[in-house]
Design goal:
heterodimer; A: about 110 residues; mainly beta; six-stranded mixed beta sheet; B: about 120 residues; seven-stranded mixed beta sheet; about 0% helix; about 55% strand
Chain lengths: ~110, ~120
């Protein structure tokens, strides 16, 4: 069982906006920032959002992140078929003194 | 281009030893923490261990301490993950990751580059 809690699945139609949640504790999300990764089946995870709301160069501005208290969210606007993938959140945990992960959310574009 | 290239898939029997590798390129290897993450369909993703190549400072996830050994060869820009006696439960995909941040690992750091992954099957 993963330390951070994500819904196992999410879905939307092309053009829609979807959000994926990530819930943790004071020792991780509550005291640190959140990072999000996209994993297309058969490939390695790719950094999508860092420091809760920052996009690396090359990541489309359709992807955005936010954090409040012990929860965080990833929003994807203008949903496209290429967005179909698994999305993971991660955060530094001060109890572990390392990173913890969410269980991942599989996004389906209908 | 910053890249982490991992060694190929492995099939081993229980009790055997194994070392997998991860070679970095396109950046100053010794100045970034480099670590390992396990991915399984049942347990998801777990951070295992991380090392700072410049001084070989190491951190282990307590769940993996004593189960694996992380090491690095600065001259080859390569990090390693080693098992002395594999178990069936070690069957997984293993990714090496670079941590972007300073030399004192902490909450401000994040895993920005991932390797291509190494599948380990123990059966």
């Amino acid at each position: 069982q993963s330390v951070l809690t994500q819904p196992p699945s999410a879905s939307g139609t092309p053009g829609q906006r979807v959000t994926i949640s990530c819930s943790g504790r004071f020792s991780n999300i509550g005291s640190s920032t959140v990072n999000w990764y996209q994993q297309v089946p058969g490939t390695a995870p790719r950094l999508l959002i860092y420091n809760s709301d920052q996009r690396p160069s090359g990541v489309r501005d359709r992807f955005s992140g936010s954090k409040s208290g012990t929860s965080a969210s990833l929003a994807i606007s203008g949903l496209q078929s290429e967005d179909e993938a698994a999305y993971f959140c991660t955060s530094w945990d001060y109890t572990l003194n390392g990173w913890v992960f969410g269980g991942g959310t599989k996004l389906t574009v209908l | 281009e910053v890249q982490l290239v991992q060694s190929g898939a492995e099939v081993k029997e229980p009790g055997e030893s194994l070392q997998i590798s991860c070679q970095g390129s396109g950046y100053l290897f010794r100045s970034y923490w480099i670590g390992w993450v396990r991915q399984t369909s049942g347990r998801g993703l777990d951070w295992m261990a991380i090392i700072y190549p410049d001084d070989s400072n190491i951190r282990y996830n307590p769940s993996f301490q004593g189960q694996v050994t992380i090491s690095v060869d600065k001259s080859l820009n390569t990090a390693y993950l080693q098992w002395s006696s594999l178990k069936a439960s070690d069957t997984a995909m293993y990714y090496c990751v670079r941590a972007f941040g300073g030399n004192s690992l902490g909450a401000a750091d994040y895993m920005d580059v991932w390797g291509n992954g190494t599948t380990v099957t123990v059966s």
